[in-house]
Each structure stands twice: as C-alpha cells, then as structure tokens.
Amino acid sequence: MSVARTRIAVYPGTFDPVTNGHVDLVDRASPLFERLVVGVAESPGKGPALPLALRVELARGALSAYGNVEVIGFDGLLAHFVRDLGAGVLLRGLRAVSDFEYEFQLASMNRHLIPDVETLFLTPAEEYGFISSSLVREISRLGGDVSAFVPPAVAQALQAQWQRNVA
Questions:
Q1: Is 147 a catalytic residue?
Q2: Of 34 and 100, more confident
Q3: 83 carries an active-site annotation
Q4: Which of 41, 77, 91, 111 has the fewest CB atoms below 10 angstroms from its CB?
Q5: How many helices (DSSP H) and strands (DSSP E) are in the chain?
Q6: Three-state DSSP class for residue 120
C-alpha cells in the first residue's frame, strides 16, 4: 500500500444519529491521517430514522471543528466508496467485546473486496462506550433526554423527528 493511500481514512456508518462516541473517535483519529472521510451510508435496509441528507448535515455540524474531516453521504458498496476516494484505511469503532465478532467479519469481507485497504479499530473513551445510535433513537423516541449522548443539534433534530411522526 502506498504512503499516500494510508494518509486517507474512511470512517463509515449510518450515523443514525451521530453520537458523542462517534465524535470522540473522530477526535482521536483525525490527527492520525491527512484526511478523514466520515462516510454516511444511506443503508435503506436498516430503515434509518433520519433521512440521509439530515444525517450528513448533523454529522457535518458535529465535526465542523476538524479541518481535515469531511462528511460525505453515499449509497452503495463501501468497497467502491473507499476505492473511489483513494483511501487506504477503514476506521471502525469497537465499544465492547460483543462488537468484535461482527466487526471482524466485516473486516475480513472488506479485506477480500479491497485487499489494499487496512481496517483500524479504535475504542471510544470509557464515558462513551455504552452509547449506541439505536439506544439514543429509542430513548429519544420515547421522550427521554438524550442531550448527554449527542451534540445539541442532534438532540433537537431527534425531538423534531418524533414530533413530526406523532403529528
């Protein structure tokens, strides 16, 4: 793998919604790379609660302080997205041991599809290890306060989303 390729990393996910744990991973990964692309996947099979354009907008707002971080929405195979960007590293977060089996399977498949790209696993800071987008969505949908788990604009967007769904 060329040095130029290892200077570009992709952090993919649905980011439905982006959480403080995601921001923490970007905070620690961004100094490691010349360019870090946060790839927000359309993922219609997962049935995201928030539309892609809103997820991209919220991630851009949450990550605007990082000059070398770019947020791009994509639909399609991650391997194609990574190859089109010329990236050499896939960044993935591991919150708990339970994440490892699934992430290991993904890394193995990606190694087969894009053999010149390495997967790098990072763990979030301890205070974010329990946060997941699905838990945040459920708490918010049921009227709970998620402000400790997500950036302020994300908490507001979730609240507005559930109000629209009720109306």
A1: no
A2: 34
A3: no
A4: 77
A5: 7, 5
A6: strand
